[in-house]
Amino acid sequence: MNWIPYACVGVMAAGMIYLLLAALFKAFGAQKVMRFFPPIVTGPIIICIGMTLANSAINNCAANWWIAILAVAIVVVCNIWGKGMIKIIPILLGVVGSYVVAAIFGQLDPVKVQELRDAAWIGLPVHFGDTVFSLFKGCDGGLLVSSIAIMMPIALATVIEHIGDMCAISSTVGENYVADPGLHRTLLGDGSATILAALFGAPANTTYGENTGVLALTKVYDPKVIRIAAVLAIIFAFCPKFEALIACMPTATIGGVSMILYGMISAVGVRNVVENQVDFSKSRNVIIAALEMSLALGITFSSASAIKLGSVSLSGLAVGALVGIILNAVLPGNDYVFGKNEVGDESVNFKV
To answer: Is the peptide bond preceding residue 181 cis, with omega within 30 degrees of 0?
Structure first.
């Protein structure tokens, strides 16, 4: 059975959470809604997102630690000692450099290399069998409901990450994007993109904290750059040869680069808490952070890897985020007020 269409329906349902929250921001305003997402809630969850992903990075590195270490070394050297363009694109250079070395020493998968040779130069990027439309030919209702129940709650964690990242971008660029264009528009865009992508069998969209680091590093803030990158991505999507080239990339290369990127996500969470001067002398803050992180990581790496409530299965990140939001709302001493100060609004300062 092909599970991808069912997973995509679940991803679409997760995208709906974004649209719902966008409507709440529009209806009630950022100040009232952001009271439920202070740094003590967003910071620990972002930390856990990076630490959860780090597990897959290490597993990928295990395929060939020498290639993974080479990828990490190239990124570090280019980022610390590089000049000009080299300093701007250390991640890309780490990928290309370790990829080339792996190819020279015969570390590429022979099957994928053959697929690269056989791939056409021009073709459609959509595989109908992986799209939601394929379910019209026959659908397992129980499996469909299960996929929605499993995937939808994950949005609770990624929505918090989205809010934190938008605040971080505001700080880096020097523009308050939380107020203008507003979180209701950014959430609407993120959710709509996720729904549209899943409809055609693509993975969910989400924000990434490490991209904010790239903004701070390059000082390139013009949205035109992103638009150009988007157009190029669309063009490359119609080239199966390019798709096969990416698929041929050594697993260890992906692991080495991901180890840095996923670690940066956790670093965003740490700075979220530090820069906001979250007071951990208050018992409420200690309890919220402790339970968020214990539940998010404990459940994720437990044998069950999820909490089942009837037919609904909640991931560790979803449970941690939900508990954090609830505790922050009910425990006394919530003194966070959105709009009161610049640091609180921006969540984290990435300026270097």
So the answer is: yes
